[in-house]
């Protein structure tokens, strides 16, 4: 372990240190503000350390981790997402449970798990990261303990994540049995061996579960509905983004797309996810569930980038994920900001006429929904455009037609919520009298909105960054 | 193809084994169903209460704490094995590890997770501590 | 002077400021609204003062590059656009000033000024555009503002209808214009006007391409300038407030078509057939519109038809190869027609929104300032010396006569037009200002309305000096000024004696018109007029029946088609799609039972399928 290794590892180290520091602080004194700020500052420092580590070439750290520009880009995305979640959580928790502080230990630990996944060069590291992420999420999902929904969600997630992890571990074991190593290629996996193929299939179950792809998607709406709104945002973005980055890396280092069956399976899964996700969301009256279903469809879209040629697919994936991070976090942030101490604002009726009561939140949500729908002037449009571009260049016509069909369907439910936002407010008292938004939440939402529109209007800087970072060979 | 054949044969063989052994037993054993045979514990102990009882949450806390320190012991053994080769680095590595555990230990101590009857430690916050005491 | 961008930017800034709305207060709104145009006028004056005869181009920014077509946003001042910006900002400023008084009682005062400022900004973009695309932005922008201002009093549905009509009819021309842009862009890989005019010289005269492009551009110009056959929108456009009619539908926007042809004149010269068509259209428009103007009862409609007719003169001049005469008429017309509209506005205002000529009368005493300024404007419209209208119309007729042997017919139509002009002007004047009064004067116009009238009247007179006929002791300053762009050809020289004869004949026809009208309407009383007008009058009243013709030709068949497709055959596809989606939604929702058992089973099932596909296939 040299100093350069340490420098490359700095984001992970700092994020871990954040968790420890918050723990020490909590042991000394229970103060919500202190814990939250410590957590936010630590995550910010970790983001800064990514930028400072720019000069490091791809580095292998032991056999487990590799820090290259790809990993750094997604680390940055994950840390930024976690930071936004931390800030949004501050305002959210203030109103709710009386024990806030442990939350800020678990959140950076979940981020560490995601970072390990992104940086893993070895199935062992991947499984470790996956478990760390899952365990933290169990606790975070059930953190409020106010209603029955959250415990139910946590238990569901616990059982199903455990089952899917079992498959992933089994898959890793099979691959080890076939090959004698857990490290990612090269040389790529021998795709002729049935043992290795079974291993890949089992791994795909684990990955598919975390990405909430059809047919492993059933948990998504229940868990999103039960989880605190910021944590739902975390699951939708950070957790999925990390696993997706891993899938991208694994697929191409092992050259798995050389196998027709894998392409076939992924195509089927992607198309099914796009259609099922959007169709399930169609008449959903619960906003959190609606966002959950739409996230299924979005990951389905993302698979296009996975299947497209690397030169176009990788940047498309990075752009789309960035846009999706912004919009999802923003949408869940607004849900959180509107929520009451006793329940989250997840009914469609809660949003009726919001534009006249809370113009800022309504505007933010409008921008987020338009971006999720992929309309121009938002980051979502840029993302979808590059996705379609990559798909066209690789002639993935089936998936592209599914994407178009899915997008058409999705417009309906996004616009349905939008129409509710701008409907004339009901004559009677509003369904919920939402509390005032604390300033950190406002700041975070403002940041997300500005970034969303900035990327939508002027995507060149982001595209440059992505060309430089997310595409580099490994 | 031979590999696949092997797997298929294995699966078929496994299913057959279970079915055959159960069928063979059914053919030979006597069948005399009755009240006594329906009991949970056939050996005579009468059952009390329901099977689904909630264990006191404190057992889980204790179990978790035990596992953590158990792992520490498990790690200490290989550490001791290699200590002579890398005295300095190995010392600091373990010191860091133990230090981390100490932070957790302090946390558990501070908030009363080490006490069986928990005081309302740290003052404000522990609403899940109330159940056992109030029941008693 | 490199600050050309200030010229359109100032009114645009005024518009943006005025967007804040009524909270600004009337005083601030007035200051911003009129002040921004005034400031822009000052910049124009400064530009003119420092103008040394060489065109100035200012590239603001690179707009876009699409394959080999690269377009900049650039402004350019040459002799032609200099004349235009001076007219637009100068006359525009006076009209803004006037509207401060005219619109003072309106609730949407600042909205009105905002639209007017936006209009001026777009109009300036139009005339300053160095590329056809910049010009096109201004072109469409003024169309938008015209739409907004015609429908300004949107509570009355008929105003909205008039606005839509104007927008749609000009759209027909704009489509042709757009196609011309596409052709030019594909042929030359540039939309820069200079570059196009240079490059197109490679085309032989009368080549199919030149005729096509010139014809399409002419289509755009016809729509914007309300010439045959797209003139039907302008009379209805009078639904807007009178200052709008003065600024947009008389002085500036409707002349944009003439400007476009003048701007692209070298291209038109390559298509002599199209030029002849321009002249023919101009001549027929001026006669038809003049005939319609003779019977209108609404004072603003008289002026609207008169505007169409006068622009017909400009097109006639363009068609016979005398763009500088067309531009000269454009300038003088801008002054006197703005004056007439504003004067009419003052009358309408004074009579409490009374626009019917038959219900006016005897206003000579009640509104002396309006009377005298209106008199000067009318004299200019009739082309009596020593007004600007005389100088410009005379120049056009003289050049028409001289242009080609066959052009005598065109000249004759022009002279007949002069007769008609004199007739309807004198009729309007007599009905409004002489005879017994039929309406009560509510309030007299204040100084803020009178001063622009006086200044415009002065302008109507003084513009005569720009290009006063040589035989009468003048000098062709204006033609010389534009000579770098439109060289004065010797073919158009007319001997002094012939010129005098021509002048005398057109003057005589004008006087004849005045005398006829005066005899007919001096002692006119509405009770004399038959309640049911004769078929000929009805035909003329309706603008020669074009509306019913278009109704029959286009609107009826279109409505028939829409009625056929009332239930929208294509939409049923989407309805079916929605229905199928809903069906699938319900089906899939059943799978979300909320039971972990089922979820785990699905997970296991998925795993089995994956394993089976991977291992067994």
Per DSSP, the total helix count of chain A is 18
Give the strand order of the largest sheet of chain A, numbering strands 1, 2, ... along the chain: 1-2
* Rough outline of chain C: globular
- Catalogue the unreliable spans of chain C: none
Helical content band of chain A: over 70%
Proportion of residues in β-strands of chain A: under 5%
Overall spatial form of chain A:
globular
Spatial order of the strands forming the largest sheet of chain C? 1-2
Mean pLDDT of chain A: 90
Largest sheet of chain A: 2 strands, antiparallel
Topology readout:
The complex is a heterotrimer of chains A (474), B (136) and C (617).
Chain A (H helix, E strand, L loop, with lengths): L2 H26 L3 H21 L6 E3 L3 E3 L1 H26 L8 H17 L3 H19 L6 H32 L14 H18 L7 H8 L2 H25 L6 H22 L5 H21 L2 H29 L15 H4 L1 H15 L5 H15 L3 H26 L16 H19 L2 H10 L5
Helix pairs in contact in A: 1-2, 1-4, 2-3, 2-4, 3-4, 3-9, 3-12, 3-17, 4-5, 4-9, 5-6, 5-9, 6-7, 6-8, 8-9, 8-11, 9-11, 9-12, 10-11, 10-16, 11-12, 11-15, 11-16, 12-14, 12-15, 12-17, 14-16, 14-17, 15-17
Chain B lengths: L1 H27 L6 H4 L18 H26 L4 H24 L19 H6 L1
Chain C lengths: L5 H13 L7 H25 L5 E11 L2 E9 L1 H24 L6 H20 L3 H19 L6 H32 L4 H7 L8 H18 L7 H4 L5 H10 L4 H8 L1 H5 L2 H22 L5 H21 L3 H28 L12 H4 L1 H15 L5 H16 L4 H26 L13 H16 L14 H6 L13 H26 L13 H7 L4 H19 L4 H23 L4 H21 L1
Antiparallel strand pairs in C: 1-2
Helix pairs in contact in C: 1-2, 1-4, 2-3, 2-4, 3-4, 3-10, 3-15, 3-20, 4-5, 5-6, 5-10, 6-8, 8-11, 8-13, 10-15, 11-15, 13-14, 13-19, 14-15, 14-18, 14-19, 15-17, 15-18, 15-20, 17-19, 17-20, 18-19, 18-22, 19-22
Describe the structure in brief:
The complex is a heterotrimer of chains A (474), B (136) and C (617). Chain A has helices at 3-28, 32-52, 69-94, 103-119, 123-141, 148-179, 194-211, 219-226, 229-253, 260-281, 287-307, 310-338, 354-357, 359-373, 379-393, 397-422, 439-457, 460-469, and strands spanning 59-61, 65-67.
Description:
The complex is a heterotrimer of chains A (474), B (136) and C (617). With 474 residues, chain A is mostly helical. Chain A has a domain at 259-474. Chain A has 18 helices and two strands. Chain A has helices at 3-28, 32-52, 69-94, 103-119, 123-141, 148-179, 194-211, 219-226, 229-253, 260-281, 287-307, 310-338, 354-357, 359-373, 379-393, 397-422, 439-457, 460-469; strands spanning 59-61, 65-67. Chain A has a two-stranded antiparallel ribbon. Chain A starts with a helix and ends in a 5-residue tail after the last helix. With 136 residues, chain B is an all-alpha fold. Chain B has helices at 2-28, 35-38, 57-82, 87-110, 130-135. In chain B, helix 3 runs antiparallel to helix 4. Residues 121-136 of chain B have low confidence and may be disordered. In chain C, helix 8 runs antiparallel to helix 11 (256-263) and helix 15 (323-350) runs antiparallel to helix 17 (368-382). The model of chain C has no long low-confidence stretch (mean pLDDT 86). By secondary structure, chain C is mainly alpha-helical. Chain C has helices at 6-18, 26-50, 79-102, 109-128, 132-150, 157-188, 193-199, 208-225, 233-236, 242-251, 256-263, 265-269, 272-293, 299-319, 323-350, 363-366, 368-382, 388-403, 408-433, 447-462, 477-482, 496-521, 535-541, 546-564, 569-591, 596-616, and strands at 56-66, 69-77. Chain C is built from 26 helices and two strands. In chain C, 71% of the residues lie in helices and 3% in strands. Chains in contact: A-B, A-C.
């Amino acid at each position: 372990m040299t100093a350069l290794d340490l420098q490359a590892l700095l984001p992970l180290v700092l994020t871990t240190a954040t968790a420890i520091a918050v723990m020490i602080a909590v042991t000394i004194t229970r103060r919500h503000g202190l814990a939250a700020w410590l957590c936010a500052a630590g995550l910010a420092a970790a983001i800064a350390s990514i930028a400072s580590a720019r000069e490091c070439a791809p580095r292998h750290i032991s056999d487990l981790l590799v820090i290259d520009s790809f990993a750094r880009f997604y680390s940055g995305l994950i840390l930024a997402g976690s930071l936004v979640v931390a800030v949004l959580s501050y305002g959210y928790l203030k109103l709710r449970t009386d024990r806030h502080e442990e939350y800020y230990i678990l959140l950076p630990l979940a981020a560490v798990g995601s970072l390990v996944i992104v940086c893993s060069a070895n199935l062992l590291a991947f499984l470790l990261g996956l478990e760390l992420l899952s365990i933290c999420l169990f606790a975070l999902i059930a953190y409020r303990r106010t209603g029955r929904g959250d415990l139910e969600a946590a238990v569901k997630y616990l059982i199903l994540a455990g089952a899917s992890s079992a498959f992933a571990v089994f898959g890793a074991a099979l691959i080890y049995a076939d090959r004698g190593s857990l490290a990612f290629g090269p040389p790529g996996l021998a795709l002729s061996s049935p043992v290795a193929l079974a291993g890949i299939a089992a791994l795909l179950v684990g990955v598919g579960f975390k990405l909430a792809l059809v047919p492993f998607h059933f948990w998504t709406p229940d868990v999103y509905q039960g989880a605190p709104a910021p944590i739902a945002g975390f699951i939708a973005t950070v957790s999925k983004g990390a696993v997706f980055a891993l899938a991208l890396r694994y697929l191409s280092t092992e050259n798995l797309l050389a196998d027709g069956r894998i392409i076939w399976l992924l195509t089927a899964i992607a198309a099914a996810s796009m259609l099922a996700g959007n169709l399930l969301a169609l008449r959903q009256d619960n906003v959190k569930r609606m966002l959950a279903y739409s996230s299924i469809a979005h990951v389905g879209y993302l698979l296009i980038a996975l299947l497209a040629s690397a030169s176009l697919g990788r940047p498309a994936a990075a752009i789309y994920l960035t846009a999706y991070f912004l919009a999802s976090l923003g949408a869940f942030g607004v849900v959180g900001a509107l929520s009451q101490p006793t329940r989250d604002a997840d009914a469609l009726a809660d949003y009726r006429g919001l534009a006249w009561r809370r113009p800022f939140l309504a505007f933010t949500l409008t921008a987020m929904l338009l971006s999720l729908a992929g309309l121009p002037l938002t980051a979502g449009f840029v993302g979808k455009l590059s996705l379609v571009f990559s798909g066209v260049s690789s002639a993935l016509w089936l998936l592209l037609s599914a994407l178009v069909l899915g997008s058409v369907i999705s417009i309906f439910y996004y616009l349905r919520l939008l129409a509710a936002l701008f409907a004339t407010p009901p004559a009677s008292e509003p369904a919920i009298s939402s509390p005032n938004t604390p300033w950190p939440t406002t700041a975070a939402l403002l940041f997300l909105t500005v970034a969303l529109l900035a990327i939508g209007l002027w995507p060149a800087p982001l595209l440059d960054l992505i060309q430089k970072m997310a595409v580099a060979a490994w | 193809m031979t590999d696949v054949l092997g797997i298929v044969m294995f699966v078929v063989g496994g299913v057959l084994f279970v079915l055959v052994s159960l069928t063979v037993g059914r053919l030979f054993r006597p069948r005399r169903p009755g009240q006594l045979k329906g009991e949970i514990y056939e050996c005579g102990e009468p059952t009390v209460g329901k099977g689904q009882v909630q264990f006191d949450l404190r057992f889980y806390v204790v179990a978790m704490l035990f596992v953590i320190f158990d792992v520490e012991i498990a790690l200490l053994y290989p550490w001791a094995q290699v200590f002579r080769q890398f005295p300095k680095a190995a010392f600091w590595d373990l010191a860091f590890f133990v230090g981390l555990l100490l932070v957790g230990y302090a946390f558990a101590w501070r908030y009363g997770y080490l006490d069986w009857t928990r005081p309302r430690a740290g003052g404000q916050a522990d609403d899940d501590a109330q159940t056992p005491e109030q029941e008693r | 002077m490199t600050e050309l961008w200030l010229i359109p930017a100032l009114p645009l800034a005024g518009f943006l400021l005025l967007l804040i709305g009524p909270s600004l207060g009337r005083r601030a709104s007035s200051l911003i609204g009129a002040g921004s145009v005034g400031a822009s006028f000052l910049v124009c004056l400064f530009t003119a003062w420092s103008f040394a005869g060489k065109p100035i181009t200012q590239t603001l920014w690179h707009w876009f590059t699409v394959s080999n077509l690269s377009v900049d946003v650039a402004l350019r001042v040459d002799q032609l656009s200099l004349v235009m910006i001076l007219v637009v900002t100068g006359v525009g400023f006076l009209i803004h000033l006037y509207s401060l008084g005219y619109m003072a009682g309106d609730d949407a005062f600042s909205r009105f000024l905002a639209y007017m400022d936006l209009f001026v900004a777009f109009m300036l973009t139009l005339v300053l555009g160095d590329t056809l695309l910049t010009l096109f932005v201004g072109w469409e922008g003024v169309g938008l503002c015209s739409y907004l201002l015609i429908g300004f009093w949107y509570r009355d549905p008929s105003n909205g209808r008039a606005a839509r009509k104007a927008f749609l009819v000009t759209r027909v021309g704009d489509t042709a214009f757009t196609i011309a842009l596409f052709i030019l862009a594909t042929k030359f890989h540039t939309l820069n006007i200079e570059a196009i005019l240079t490059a197109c010289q490679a085309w032989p005269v009368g080549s199919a391409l030149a005729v096509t492009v010139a014809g399409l551009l002419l289509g755009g110009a016809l729509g914007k300038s309300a010439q045959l056959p797209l003139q039907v929108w302008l009379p209805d456009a009078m639904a807007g407030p009178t200052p709008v009619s003065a600024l947009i539908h008389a002085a500036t926007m409707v002349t944009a078509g003439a400007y476009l042809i003048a701007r692209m004149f070298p291209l038109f010269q390559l298509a002599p057939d199209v030029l002849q068509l321009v002249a023919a259209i101009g001549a027929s428009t001026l006669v038809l519109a003049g005939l319609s103007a003779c019977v209108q009862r609404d004072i603003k409609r008289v002026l609207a038809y008169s505007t169409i007719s006068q622009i017909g003169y400009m097109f006639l001049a363009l068609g016979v190869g005398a763009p500088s005469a067309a531009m000269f008429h454009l300038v003088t017309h801008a002054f006197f027609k703005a004056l007439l509209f504003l004067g009419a506005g003052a009358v309408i205002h004074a009579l409490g929104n009374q626009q019917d000529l038959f219900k006016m009368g005897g206003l000579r005493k009640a509104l002396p300032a309006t009377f005298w300024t209106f008199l000067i404007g009318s004299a200019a419209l009739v082309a009596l010396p020593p007004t600007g209208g005389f100088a410009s119309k005379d120049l056009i007729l003289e050049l028409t006569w001289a242009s080609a042997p066959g052009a005598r017919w065109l000249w004759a139509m022009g002279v007949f037009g002069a007769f008609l002009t004199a007739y309807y002007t004198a009729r309007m004047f007599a009905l409004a200002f002489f005879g017994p009064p039929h309406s009560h004067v509510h309030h007299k116009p204040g100084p803020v309305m009178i001063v622009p009238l006086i200044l415009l009247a002065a302008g109507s007179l003084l513009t005569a000096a720009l290009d006063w006929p040589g035989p009468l002791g003048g000098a062709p300053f204006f033609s010389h000024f534009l000579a770098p762009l439109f060289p004065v050809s010797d073919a158009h020289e007319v001997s002094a004696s012939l010129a005098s004869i021509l002048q005398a004949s057109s003057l005589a026809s004008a006087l004849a018109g005045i005398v006829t009208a005066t005899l007919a309407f001096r002692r006119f009383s509405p009770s004399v007029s038959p309640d049911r007008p004769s078929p000929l009058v009805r035909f003329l009243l309706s603008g020669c029946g074009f509306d019913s013709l278009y109704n029959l030709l286009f609107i009826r068949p279109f409505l028939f088609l829409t009625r056929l497709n009332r239930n929208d055959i294509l939409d049923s596809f989407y309805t079916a799609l929605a229905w199928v989606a809903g069906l699938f939604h319900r089906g899939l929702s059943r799978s979300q039972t909320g039971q972990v058992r089922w979820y785990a089973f699905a997970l296991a099932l998925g795993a089995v399928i994956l394993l089976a596909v991977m291992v067994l296939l």
